[in-house]
Amino acid sequence: MVLENYVKLEREKEKVLKVKPGSFRVEEGMITDPVTKQPKRVRKAVVDVVEEDYRPVVKVFSTLSDKLATSLAQAHATGDLYRYHIGVTWHPAGYATEYTLRLF
């Protein structure tokens, strides 16, 4: 049995999430740089998820994308991040990966 504690995005498919109130935070961590294969310190935006695709869960969603992190931080500041469902879509394109964030 595989434990899935993290929200996993699929290519070009919207993931609908409900975020636990007040859970937005920025954490530091280490990753392996995909190009140099060396350890690299990163900052990531993290939220606790209580609903994934309209099903109750206890998971974490995190992103290294500055643009997506900024959008999440703005929604956190206004309270919209917790008031609405959010839709996150991953549009992979090599190093030019984009994300769409929708609040509804």
Structure keywords:
six-stranded antiparallel β-sheet; 104 residues; 16% helix; alpha+beta; single chain; 2 helices
Topology:
Elements: E1 15-19, E2 25-32, E3 39-52, E4 55-63, H1 66-78, H2 80-83, E5 86-91, E6 98-103
Antiparallel strand pairs: 1-3, 1-5, 2-3, 3-4, 5-6
Describe this structure in words.
This protein is of the alpha+beta class and 104 residues long. The protein has one domain. Helix content is 16%, strand content 46%. It has 2 helices and 6 strands, in the order E-E-E-E-H-H-E-E. Strands 1, 2, 3, 4, 5 and 6 form a 6-stranded antiparallel β-sheet that branches. The longest helix has 13 residues. It is globular. The N and C termini lie far apart (33 Å).
Summarize the structure.
With 104 residues, the protein is of the alpha+beta class. The protein has one domain.
How much of the sequence is in beta strands?
over 45%
Q: Total helix count?
A: 2
What class do helices, strands and sheet pairing give? alpha+beta
Q: Biggest β-sheet, characterized?
A: 6 strands, antiparallel
Radius of gyration: 14 Å
What is the average per-residue confidence, as pLDDT, rounded to a whole number?
95
Total count of strands? 6
Tell me the span between the first and last alpha carbons. Answer: 33 Å
The total domain count is 1
Percent range for helical residues? 10-25%
Sum up the overall morphology in one term: globular
Contiguous runs where pLDDT drops below 50 for at least 5 residues: none
SSE succession: EEEEHHEE
